[in-house]
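Section 3.1 - Work completed
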Amino acid sequence: DRDGNGHIEARELSSVMRRLGLKASTEGTTQMMDAADVDGNGQIEFPEFVLIMGKRVLEEDGRVELECAFRLLAQQGSGLVKVEDVKALLTTAGQ
């Protein structure tokens, strides 16, 4: 939100994606804007921005990190993660 107006336009979205090293074609940016614009006002507010960037970053870079995290949580090669283990991790992380 370079101009401080409380929302992001397509040109601002393209700019931030390039700065993050993500590919952003005009068509792709327009599609993302359309998909993220939950309230249909033609702009992206912060909660909408978090959704699209989170999805994009996970698609580009997050798979390996997610697989590593899963392996760390999985019970000794079982391929299963207990809900209790995830809950415990999330409630104690950063303490």
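Second construct:
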Amino acid sequence: MVIREARKRRNDLMYQDSPIRFYEDYCPEVQEQRAAYHDVMAKLYNLGLRPALLYPAKLQITDKEGNKKRFSSAEKAVAYVRSRPA
């Protein structure tokens, strides 16, 4: 919740007149799992979809109508992208 709120207020967070930033800190295994989704997420953005990575490494895709799909692997997400009409 803290990270989500910090994103909303990006440049407005201050402490004693100094800006503060929050960063997600994942273990190397989770970072590797999340990195596997990088390419497919770029493709999803280009298709006009809204991808989001859920913790630890699950992809949620929201389409233009607000429908959501979740994938537990990058391979399944890539197969979904390939199955969509161009």
